[in-house]
User: Fold these one by one.
Assistant:
Number 1:
Amino acid sequence: MSLRRVRYYGDPVLKSRAKEITEFDASLADLAADMRETMKAYNGVGLAANQIGVLQRILVVDVPQQDAPRATYTLVNPVIVFREGQEKGEEGCLSIPGVWDDVVRAKRIHVRAVDETGKPVEVEAEGYLARAIQHEVDHLDGVLFVDRLSLLKRQFLRRDLEAIARGELPEDQQPPKEASGG
């Protein structure tokens, strides 16, 4: 396992659609392990492969849940097959450090995917877990949470986003020292 460098706003890989995965081998298992380690090192609850520069349809989530164990999934080629309701909630992103805003997402979802070994996975999610999965699936489609904000909100955030694109991160938002290229 190795820690990977998270790509930041302005990197073209974040606006690219990830490709379907067809081979389930040791390299995919290693990628999933690297993603979980990277997500934890950056204090995230989700990470999509293109956030570390890999254009493959794989994401990991590790979401705290109220009155239940953490929800931890590796989803390969995820498809949201059902959405219900709407709720607005605050989101941030490891690729857009220091920026937070409210985004409207489905309240409940049903996802079909496979894990890193190719075993089918179905997830019924609501609340925070549903939000995290939708956020990461968006990444795999080249969509950032700020793309879901109104034009006015994006204009308001423009200076912060431009600074991130230039590599100017606040001191408390610096990447872990061990993060390598990816």
Number 2:
Amino acid sequence: MDLNEYQNEVRQTAVYPGRNGFRNGDISGITYTILGLIGGAGELLYSFNESEVGDNMWYISQTTWELLTPLTYLEQIKPYDYSYTEAVLMLGNVYKNVFGDDNSIITSKRKKEILKLLSTAFHHLMNTPNFEKILVDNIYKLREQKRVGGW
């Protein structure tokens, strides 16, 4: 499955506060997706299964979308030599600095750091066996959840 196609499909299932707010300076949507990714990484660490991989991909996809970046851009970034969990935990630390050092504004420097860490996490998930099937299954699961109001 094409990654931008995946991003466009799952974006249709996104329902959360601040969605698409980055253009207007609202970072609550990005905050939601990054916090979700941190929680998702914990769930993935606890129970590594295809559904959790799909959930983590959703958060990565939505975070890049919120940052006005196509998901395929992550393929082009040379990842750090971190494990998946290390990358996501470092992402939390870098994102904390948006509030502590940058007056709640995502600077271009901070955005590059965030994207590099997302790329590192993304590259790990891409190496999961059956990755394309996981993406397709994730789309079906998310569509069904949205249809029945399962969030």
Number 3:
Amino acid sequence: MDSFFAALRVGDTGHVTGVDMTPEQVEKANALRLESGFDQVGFVEGRIEDLPFEDASFDCIISNGVINLSPAKKTVFAEAARVLRPGGRLAIADIVADVELARAIVADTDLWASCIGGAAQVNKYQQAIEASGLALESGRENPYRFISEQAQNACSRYGVKSVSLMARKAG
């Protein structure tokens, strides 16, 4: 969905590339693209830790709740910095925590599926962004409520929350 919303912003002269790690999801997204007439959108199979693109090939990267699913967040941010052009932006909506999660939370598959198990401590998350060569420009907490009691308990205990961040590559 984010790719299609981005396509509305770039118009007919821009281009949007979506990435997914499963061929089934890429196939589904391409079918939706064709059905909806979004000629300026394309989808490729890839992993956020190893993007299949040349250096400095994008003006903007959007990630909506995906980075917390990767245990290699530093690598994700380094890859984003690599493929961004100078002055390019990284726009993130993600789940983070105020304090480091207990091992039992990180090892719980239900909490990973709820996007809680991979939530990094917010200051470490931001440090990883900046260590990749991107400068944080803005950030805010988003209203978000988890449904399951287990997820709500983890939120209360560890300060798990949704945030939006904007970072820019030096230009």
